[in-house]
Amino acid sequence: MSTEAHLESLLEIINSSARQAIAEYKKGGNDVPTINSAEFHPLDTSTHHVALRKAVRLLEGACQQLCASLAPPQRTVFNLVRHYDWVCVDIAHRKGIADILDKHPEGLHVNELSQVIGIEKTRLARILRLLTTRGLFKEVNRDVFANNRLSLVIKSTCNARHLLHPGGGIGLQAASVLFDALSDPEYGASPDPGKTALHYAMRQKGLPAVSNVFHILEMDEEKYKIFHKSMVGAGEIFGALSVLDRKE
Questions:
Q1: What is the DSSP string of 200-248?
Q2: Which residue among 46, 81, 141, 168 is least packed, with the fewest CB closer than 10 Å?
Q3: pLDDT confidence tier of residue 166, bands split at 50, 70 and 90
Q4: What is the pLDDT of residues 188-211, one digit of tens each?
Q5: Domain closes at, from 80, 104, 122
């Protein structure tokens, strides 16, 4: 297959999978959701919609491959390591910005929001504007921000929110020392489940060794109390319960 033919095939996948997703959303008389919607679509919290998830998976994969094919490789690799969007999401998450904006459906000026959460207004505006370009929140007027369909996920009432702890999650702790753990003669090649990057990170911090993640949860009362909500949120995010949606 020629290079151009390969790109055309990716475009066909993008087009067909997008149309399939649209068709799935419209089933049952529902409208196709927009990014600026102020509420979830009925399928957003569905854990059994396999067809939609398959279509979106193809769409995401083809879009990523098309961009990687056409963009300069330096840019693509640079973006792999220099995407700090998660830091801004973490700030919005921990400051409860979505809950605050929920009380202002027409939007709230960054000056007022700054006073409520205690972040300097100019920096806060930059953070929210970056998130807006990524689809999280919307800027209804200059420096006036409101919730949208994506920001609803980080409201305190959303179960999926409890999995979004990038700033203090155990995954990030392990990721920050992964290179060192792999290079360590004791941890790098060990098949021992107690010699993971996470255990290495805990040792570096002088924390007691634990055998599994559940023991870690027991050491953090806040995470322990919301664990059940995190599992419900995981079902919404990953669609794990789709395996039960079988028609004999």
A1: HHHHHTTPPP-SSHHHHHHH-HHHHHTHHHHHHHHHHHH-GGGGG----
A2: 81
A3: low
A4: 999 988 898 988 988 888 877 666
A5: 80
Q: Which of 101, 131, 154 is the last residue of a domain?
A: 154
Rounded alpha-carbon distances, angstroms, from residue 91 to 52, 157, 161, 167: 31, 17, 13, 8
- Which residue range is the domain that position 90 belongs to? 85-154
Q: How far apart are CA 184 and CA 200, in angstroms?
A: 9
Do 195 and 233 belong together in one domain?
A: yes
**Residue 97 banded pLDDT, cuts 50, 70, 90:** very high
* Structure-block tokens of residue 204: 């570096």
Which helix (H) or strand (E) segment holds residue 140: the answer is: strand 138-141
How far is the CA of 17 from the CAs of 4, 132, 183, 188, in angstroms? 20, 25, 42, 41
Q: Are residues 116 and 172 in the same domain?
A: no
Do 169 and 231 share a domain, yes or no? yes
pLDDT of residue 77: 95
Does one domain contain both 165 and 238?
A: yes
Find the Cα–Cα–Cα–Cα dihedral 87, 93, 94, 100, rounded to 10°: 130
How distant, in Å, are the alpha carbons of 21, 92, 114, 139 from that of 125?
33, 12, 9, 10
